[in-house]
Write a structure and sequence with these properties.
about 220 residues; alpha/beta; Lysozyme-like; two-stranded antiparallel sheet; 5 helices; 9 strands; EC 3.5.1.28; N-acetylmuramoyl-L-alanine amidase activity
Length: about 220
Amino acid sequence: MEWKKICMGCILTTLLFGCAAQTKEVKVENTEVDVAQEEIIATTIKSLPLDHSEKRINEITHLMIHFISNAGLKPEDPYNVDDVYSIFEEYGLSVHYLIDRKGEIYSLVPEDRVAYHAGKGSLPDFPEYDNKMNQYSIGIELIAIGTKEEMTGIIGEETYNQIDPALVGYTDAQYQSLQQLVDNILERNPTILPDRSHVIGHDEYAPGRKTDPGSLFDWTRIGF
């Protein structure tokens, strides 16, 4: 699998606005610019197959947060990124962005394509979106594990008990990267209103079927 370091902000700007040629010489007074807060660095995995997504034709109005891991097969090593990527490939699923435990952001599907991350569900204020949230949303997966109760439908209690308790929940690095990513997405997509009716968890769209990002996810860490 080929890995490549890229500047997400630069790529997204290029895709949205193109590259403008510089035709006039400009004198730069200060070349020491702190861009740490402006750049979001993504490690790009080879894009998921096209049949894991489709061309987007609807306006993007929502952002959905998930968690994912490989705890069912490897409770001793549930957070291997290659294993998580294989899950998407095997089950025909997809998501736009993935954030690992160190806060590394991976771009899997372009935002101008519909990723298969939401599945069946509904929101009380958006009845027209019943079972159609994929078409209107951007999906972000955090590599994480929820509480034992939240993981019941995914793995058994015996398997869950093999997981190091220190691995449960989210890391500071993930919250920091997620906030940067969310801010970046909202800035570029003003059709996604910056409130909890439009920035939602999978569990809010599919209660009873999905439990992510779950009770351990702190929405205030990303400004909500």
